[in-house]
Each structure stands twice: as structure tokens, then as C-alpha cells.
UniProtKB/TrEMBL annotation:
GO terms for biological process, alphabetical: proteolysis
Domain of life of the source: Eukaryota
One Gene Ontology MF term: serine-type exopeptidase activity
Protein name (Swiss-Prot/TrEMBL): Uncharacterized protein
InterPro entries, per database record: AB_hydrolase_fold, Peptidase_S28
Length: 94
């Protein structure tokens, strides 16, 4: 009985699942593009410091971001940020 319980528990590392908190259900997900106005979304990059704690490290990297203007209102400055975390980020997630 103890062996059954040991194999039923997901493998953990540092208090979390070995493969992270990603969901296999989101991988290779297809989005119905007929519902999306292609002129209202896209992506870009922001130059970020690689190491914010070392002033001598001048290395940078390009952080990718996605935007969606489909529900934008001219009289509003509301912005929503979605952090994909360990998930694969793509334009289909916004």
C-alpha cells in the first residue's frame, strides 16, 4: 500500500512539480482566428537588463510582449498585464 502511495504522488523538486506549473492542455492549442481582428493585436520586444543586481554586468536581452487592442476604448487608460509565467507565451493567449 505504501508503494502505491509513493508512485501516486507527483515528483517534486523544491516544493513544486518537477516540470513546473505548466499545463499540457495549453500546448499546441488552436485558436479560431476568424473571431480575431488581425489589425488589433501583435507583438514587440523590450530591452531588459540581464542582471539587475550587478552594476558591472551590461548584458541585455529582448523580452517579448503581446498586445491586443480589440476592446480598447479611447476614453480609458486601463491596461491589463498578463504574466504567462512558465507557460509558453503566444498571441493566442491574449
Amino acid at each position: 500500500a505504501l508503494a502505491t502511495v509513493a508512485f501516486a504522488v507527483p515528483p517534486m523538486f523544491g516544493g513544486r512539480r518537477k516540470e513546473g506549473f505548466t499545463s499540457h492542455l495549453l500546448e499546441n492549442r488552436k485558436v479560431d482566428t476568424s473571431l480575431i481582428d488581425e489589425n488589433s493585436f501583435g507583438s514587440g520586444t523590450i530591452t531588459q537588463k540581464l542582471d539587475h543586481f550587478d552594476e558591472n554586468n551590461k548584458n541585455n536581452w529582448q523580452q517579448r510582449y503581446f498586445f491586443n487592442y480589440q476592446f480598447k476604448q479611447d476614453d480609458s487608460n486601463v491596461n491589463i498585464i498578463y504574466i504567462s509565467g512558465e507557460q509558453i507565451a503566444s498571441d493566442s493567449t491574449i
